[in-house]
Design goal:
With 385 residues, this protein is an alpha+beta fold. 24% of the residues lie in helices and 38% in strands.
């Protein structure tokens, strides 16, 4: 049986009813057959355990993973405070799910537990290995966690996914494993296949300043650039470019002025979140001390390019369905124009549907593209028919 899929979206705000609606829709569209895997994204406004229980009762999938989110969408719907799901069934692919707990205390052990569930590490019956990874980015050091996954899998997996969200509240996020909603953890859905999956990555930003050296940083805390307090550097950039920058309410400025860490593969983006009285800037992900960095400005619609890059990896196969992840900061910056971004993805995919969510950072590992944990970056995975 070739790969079959369906995507669903619900605006029902009752947790049990929303889960039941998604479950019934999956069962109907799968003609009563159990899905091999269901991927769920749901607003933090839901009671996740209740929603997941109802969804599971409605369609009884073999595996179910996902996360809380900060904006949910499919090819025909985009809302905040809602839930969406994608179901997969295939005789040509093999699926398994993994969980790593305790990210904050020991991300290396969490990565080891997650990788230990990957059947492709010992099963060489499939030509291609891929994995959806959703993580609690608020636990910290998400970049190093993704690096651990790459090291422990010897770089043999295409990775895609992102950080769980909570509707831009940045308080507590959850990943879903079966009917459990778990904080401080990461989940994965392994996909083994003989046809390649396409993973495209693009951020559409370019440098707005000369390069600067990160002279003091600790994890997500950025203290100084070129020996000057980081907050002062942003103030001077705002003055030089004629932008308004309210240190007491910096998010409107930061959404248009993110940081780009220079790497051999391109710029890895980081979103600043706040400025302390001493000029210390807190970011949404780690800033390596000693790195070369720029303040960046937005340029192009990144999702279109990411989709094209993903489609180019299918070796001529037709796309069946896609997963799309973009940063909550991108949605907040673009406002209503984020709908144009989604429409562009739909047009690039042709008749293939998609589902996804806004995340707190994006995960990608694909040959020839910049890899790791990102902010303000579009990640598209296309699954072949």
């Amino acid at each position: 049986m070739p790969t079959r899929s369906c995507t669903l979206h619900t605006t029902n705000r009752d947790s049990a009813q929303a889960g039941a609606e998604l479950g019934a829709g999956i069962r109907e569209r799968m003609a009563g057959e159990a899905a091999d895997a269901v991927i769920v994204f749901a607003s933090s406004q839901y009671d996740h355990a209740t929603l997941l229980d109802a969804l599971n009762d409605g369609c009884r999938p073999r595996l179910m993973v996902g996360s809380s989110s900060a904006g949910e969408f499919t090819h025909d719907a985009f809302e905040e405070g809602t839930a969406c799901a994608i179901a997969l069934r295939s005789d040509e692919m093999a699926f398994s799910a993994g969980l790593g707990r305790g990210l904050h205390a020991d991300r290396i052990a969490a990565a080891r537990d997650l990788v230990g569930a990957l059947r492709g590490m010992n099963n060489h019956g499939y030509a291609h290995r891929s994995a959806l990874v959703m993580t609690d980015a608020l636990a910290g050091h998400a970049d190093d966690f993704v690096e651990q996954l790459t090291l422990q899998t010897a770089g043999t997996y295409k990775l895609f996914g992102g950080g769980a969200g909570d509707d831009a509240n940045f308080r507590k996020t959850h990943v879903f494993f079966g009917t459990e909603a778990i904080p401080d953890a990461a989940v994965c859905l392994e996909i083994l296949s003989n046809k390649p999956l396409g993973v495209g990555v693009c951020h559409g930003w370019e440098p707005a300043t000369p390069p600067m050296r990160v002279t003091s940083a600790d994890g997500m805390i950025l203290r100084s650039l070129n020996g000057h307090p980081a907050g002062d550097v942003f103030v001077r950039h705002a003055e030089a470019t004629g932008q308004q920058f309210d240190v007491a309410n910096p998010i409107p400025f930061f959404l248009h002025n993110v940081l780009g860490i220079a790497t051999d593969e391109g710029f890895r983006l980081r979103v600043p979140l706040s400025v302390a009285a001493d000029g210390v800037v807190t970011c949404a992900a780690d800033i390596p001390e000693g790195a070369t960095i720029h303040i960046m400005k937005p340029q192009t619609l990144s999702a279109v390019e990411a989709t094209k890059r993903a489609l180019a990896q299918l070796d001529g196969a037709k796309p069946e369905v896609a997963l799309f992840f973009d940063c909550v900061a991108t949605r907040l910056r673009m406002g209503r124009e984020f709908g144009f971004e989604l429409k562009a993805v739909e047009q690039a995919l042709g008749k293939a549907p998609y589902a996804g969510c806004n995340t707190y950072g994006q995960i990608a590992r694909a040959e020839g593209q910049f890899n790791g944990f990102h902010n303000c970056t579009a990640v598209v995975c296309v699954i072949p028919a």
